[in-house]
Amino acid sequence: MANRLGYLCFGVAIVTFVIGFIVSFNATVSAVVITSMVVGSILLAPAIVLGYAVKAAERDDRERGL
Fold it and tell me: Are the C-beta atoms of 20 and 36 separated by less than 8 Å?
């Protein structure tokens, strides 16, 4: 779930940036982009690391026959 929310935040940041670039890039657009990037990073960083850790542990269990 954190992966989906993190990527959604990055998507919101990209769409907001493009809309702001086309229409009017002001402080509100900048705040939304920065906030979305920060929240997305906070959500994605641990989710990606833990995802790889779980996959590695499952692979190790399969190799050991557990």
Answer: no
Domain ranges of the chain: 2-64
Q: How far is CA 54 from the centre of its chain?
A: 18
| Residue in the structure block whose two tokens are 């995802």 | 51
- What's this model's pTM, rounded to 2 decimal places? 0.77
Q: If DSSP codes are grouped into helix, strand and coil, which group holds residue 26?
A: coil
- Residue type, position 49, single letter: V
pLDDT tens-digit readout, 17-50: 999 999 988 999 999 999 999 999 999 999 999 9
Torsion sign, CA atoms 42, 44, 50, 52: negative
Calpha distance 39→60 (Å, rounded):
32
